[in-house]
Every structure is written in C-alpha cells, then in structure tokens.
Amino acid sequence: MAVSQKTIEEMTRNLQLPKNILDTLHKELEETKVTKKQLEEIIKRVIEGYEYACIEPCEAAGVVSAQSIGEPGTQMTMRTFHYAGVAEINVTLGLPRLIEIVDARKNPSTPMMSVYLTEDYAHDRDMARKLAWNIEATHISHLGSLSTDITEMALGIELNEKVINQREITPEEVAGKLEDELGLTVLIDGNVLTVRPENESYRELLQLGKNVENVTLKGIIDIKRVVIRKEDTIDEYVLYTEGSSLKHIADLDGVDMTRSTTNNINEIYEVFGIEAARNSIIKEATDTLREQGLSVDVRHIMLVSDIMTVDGEVKAIGRHGISGEKASVLARAAFEVTVNHLLDAGTRGDIDELRGVTENVIVGQPIQLGTGHVKLLAAKRT
Amino acid sequence: MKGSNKFSLLDHNLVPHHQLLSENEASQVLKKYNINKEQLPKIKVKEPVIQEIGGQVSDIVKVIRTSQTAREAEFYRLVIE
Known about the structure:
- The complex is a heterodimer.
- Chain A is α+β, with helices and mostly antiparallel strands.
- Among the domains of chain A are: 5-53, no CATH class; 138-214, 2-Layer Sandwich (Ribosomal Protein S8, Chain: A, domain 1); 326-373, DNA polymerase, domain 1.
- Helices cover 47% and strands 10% of the residues of chain A.
- In chain A, the strands form 2 sheets. Chain A has a 4-stranded antiparallel beta sheet. In chain A, strands 2-3-5-4 form a 4-stranded antiparallel beta sheet.
- Chain B has a single domain (14-80), classed as RPB5-like RNA polymerase subunit (Eukaryotic RPB6 RNA polymerase subunit), CATH 3.90.940.20.
- By secondary structure, chain B is of the alpha+beta class.
- In chain B, a hairpin with a 3-residue loop joins strand 3 (60-67) and strand 4 (71-80).
- The chains are: A alpha+beta, B alpha+beta.
- The A-B interface holds A 18-20, 23, 118, 250-253, 255-259, 261, 268-276, 279-280, 282-283, 298-299, 302, 306, 309-313 and B 1-5, 7, 9, 11-16, 18, 41-44, 47-50, 63, 65, 67-73, 77, 80.
C-alpha cells in the first residue's frame, strides 16, 4: 500500500539533510507510489549517499581548495580588458582581477556599478537617460569651451546650449556651483560665463582655468561615465557606470537599491555588511573564472570567501591577511619573508606550540591531518 | 519603492536573512556544536545590517544563506565590537 503525502512529510521532516536534497526527494516521491517499507529504504539510501559524498573528517579541505583554484589560475591570461556585457566599459579581468579579489584590495583598478532602476524608470529610455545625467559627473569640458583672454585677464566659458538643455543644467546653476567651489564671482551673459582671478597675474589665470575644469558641476564625483543598456533577459534598462559609489546613488530617485551592485567588494562590505561581501566575493570570483572558460567548483570559492570574512571584516589571503595571522612562527616563516618572522619571534621570545600542519612538517613530526589527527586511547585492563 | 533612502538592507539581493537569537536559542546553538561563543565566526556591531536589526555586542546572529550547493544554509555569527 502506498503511503500518503502526510506520512512522507512526517518521515522526512527531521532528516539532517540539505534543503535541496530534501526538495528533490519530495519531488521524486510525489511522482511515484511507494510503500512504507520502500520509503524507509529510500531514506536510508539517501542518507548513505549523502554521507558518502561528505568530506571525510580530518581531510585537508583548504589544500584541496588552494590547488583547485590555483591550477586553473595558471591557465588564465595575464592581462585582459573589456567586459563581455558592456563593451564600452573596460573592466579588469583574468588573473589580475582574481588576485585583486583574494588580496581584498580597498580600491579595485576598474570599479564599476550596475545600477538597476525602479519600475517607473526601468522601461523608459528617456527617464533612464535623465537619471544617468544625475549620476555621471559633469565637468565644464562636457558643457562647452574655455577660453583665456589675456588682454582682459579673464576666463570665458561658452556653454553649448544644446548640451546644457540635454543635461538639464542652467547657466545660473553652473555659475552658482563655480562660485561655491572657487570663491570668485561669476558673471553671466546668456550662455557665456566670465570669471576673473583674484589678482591680475598670468599665472593665476592659468591656474584658474585648471581649477574650473576640475569642478564637478553635477552628478557624483567618482562616476566618470554612465552607459545605458537594455537588458533583454529582464526587459529593462540598466545603467553601468565607470567608477563606483553605492552610497551616493542610494539617495537618487529611480534607483532600485535592492538590486544595484558594484564590483568593489570593500564598498559592498561598507554598505551592505559582511554577509553581502561574502556573497560578492563568491560571485566576482566565479564570474572571473567562468569568463575565462574555467570551471572551478563553487565549494572551493565558498571556502575561500568564508575564510576571508570569518572575522567580521574582509581580509586578504596572504601575507597581510590570513597567512600573516597564523599563530605559529614557523608556519608564518614558511610562507613569506622568512627571516623577518624568525628574527621578530627571536627578539620577542615567542613559543611555537607546534599545533598546525606546517610547523610539524618542518620539525618532522606526524601532522594533524587524516589519520595523524586521530588519537588512540586504550583502556587499562583491570 | 520610492525614496530609496528607506530601503531595507535585508531586501538586497546580496544580503541573506539575518535574525537575532534569543538567549535560549543561542545556548541551544552552542550546545549543538559543543563550542563556546568566542569560537563562532564574528560580525561587527557597527556594520549596517546589525545596526538595522538592532544587535548588541555578544548577541548571536543567525544567518540563513541561500547556498548554491545546499539551497539553504544556516550560519551563526557572534556580534563583536
């Protein structure tokens, strides 16, 4: 007699299995009729299979991960630019990018944001464009031309009417912004602005020209460029930015902050916290590897990102991070800058407890891995 | 969602579900793994998600991650300074 859905539910509820295995089990059971005895057997076999697939206790999981990421790493190209999705924005890829991720660099060489839009902006190209102008940093060079008039000792700025209309900025706003930033009076005459340096010297006039060019008139300072793309898969307009500043786009109308991301992991950590940073490391590393046509099991990358985020902050793998914090002097010395570590330990009078693997290999003792980790205790015969 | 200032961090795609554990739940977790608090992974009290859910130092946070391998995975972190 086949068992009911309810008994299946009851028998599988308290199983110590991952959710996806349980889900698959349920789905399969729905389609087939099984007796109680068969169900018991199925559950027994599933648990056996799961336990068989689990890693053995005392297995060197970290070493396996290191090799599994390291070997494909040797096949990566040294320097590749260009992003498969947005051809206009250059993004570091390949080995340099992977190194950047595991080194937990504060500022990646090519920061980039993907800004998703809210419902009312996402389907309208004009609205998306409008938002893009509010994000992209606008400088005077975008809006018109500068001319230095030496006889008058003045700097003339001729604004291009078409451009300022398109970017929705008025000559008054430009003048106001410049006055705030430079502390000088700006004269407005239609589309022509005139600024004079404080003192009538040629050098100051030239310096003023440079300063004017550096003023951000509109948008977010770090964002050099914004590219609008229609993503066919979700049928929405998405903004891609060169430069990254999540904090600032959060204040803008039309930005869907629940989906917008950046490739700057440190920024993710600051804005969304450590768990998001962990997810971001996994995503960036897998994407980098996949783009190169390499498939590394996600478990290895998960282990790396777990270790990087275990202490509540994003730490680098390597001398300045995980490896540099090992308790054992010998283990640290075996990694990099050997002499410094030994010398420092010597002057401090450090003691090595010889608990880890590396230091026991060095001194020639059995290591704490596999069978070496198991202690045998014998009961005294009485 | 208008006025994106008010968005909840927990709604973001990258942020898994965080919840604070009660005293009782916390001791059950520690018992289950047979460890003391300090052996748990850490999370900083200053970080945005903890601020949002109102965690205090030495609380334990349960994180329900969506895992690519197990679909759903539980993880615990100790809130530190």
